[in-house]
Design a protein that fits this description.
By secondary structure, the chain is an alpha+beta fold. The protein has a domain of about 120 residues. Helices cover about 40% and strands about 10% of the residues. It has nine helices and four strands; from the N terminus they run αααββββαααααα. The chain has a two-stranded antiparallel sheet with strand order 1-2. Helix 1 packs antiparallel against helix 2, helix 2 packs parallel to helix 6 and helix 6 runs antiparallel to helix 9. The longest helix has 15 residues. It is globular and about 55 Å long.
Length: about 220
């Protein structure tokens, strides 16, 4: 018996197909992760990070940690002068210009592709190309856009929902979205079309990226 759990049913179904063809749990997990990364790109795409715990009766247990890492030019005190306060969600910090949340300085070195490759190499039975292949047409040709997905793409409030004001003033949400900067919008449009719910969203550039990763 096997159970595949992930947010998107399409990704779970593709992982199940892998197991029906004789693949093991790691084969299904890696394949499912790539598909899930296409359908929910804001959560777990190839530019992200993660962790995987594998239990194998034959090979024992293994923990794969492929978190995002800071670039080599990062300094411990580089943002001290632009620090404002802790974020309202207690999961980060508010800096002047939102440089830690929007723009190139906010991006870590991703670990997803390397981590999944290591797991598949050590415990999988299918090839790397076979694991990525199901995600390529979804990235290139598109997939159904849910209302939640469309709202997430177009109305991202970010981690800080409290404006720079004293606690005595009423709290209110600060609206922020991918349109915050021209660069953010160009990047979003290069990877996907911000379509209406129910319509398909795909990108040749995104499809090429997954094809290159699968080589």
């Amino acid at each position: 018996m096997a159970i595949i759990v992930c947010p998107q049913p399409r990704a779970a179904e593709i992982g199940l197909d892998v197991m029906r063809r004789g693949g093991n749990a790691v084969d299904a997990a890696v394949t499912c992760a790539f598909v899930q990364g296409v359908i929910d790109p804001q959560m777990c795409g190839i530019g992200g990070c993660g962790v995987m715990l594998v239990h194998s009766p034959q090979a024992g247990d293994a923990l794969f940690e492929f978190y995002g890492t800071a670039g080599s030019g990062v300094r411990e005190d580089q943002w001290e002068r632009i620090f404002i306060r802790e974020a309202a969600d207690r999961y980060g910090y508010v800096l002047d210009g939102w440089v830690n949340d929007v723009g190139y300085q906010s991006v870590a070195v991703p670990g997803t592709v390397a981590g999944l490759h290591e797991a598949l190499t050590r415990f999988g039975t299918i090839s790397w190309e076979e694991a990525i292949e199901p995600a390529i047409p979804l990235a290139r040709q598109g997939f159904p856009v849910t209302g939640y997905m469309h709202g997430y793409w177009t109305t991202d409030y970010g981690p800080d929902v409290v404006p720079n004001a004293s606690e005595s003033k009423p709290r209110r949400r600060r609206r922020r979205s991918t349109r915050m900067t021209a660069a953010c919008m160009r990047l979003a449009r290069s990877w996907c079309r911000l379509t209406s719910p129910g319509l398909s969203s795909g990108s040749p550039a995104r499809g090429r990226t997954f094809s290159i990763a699968g080589r």
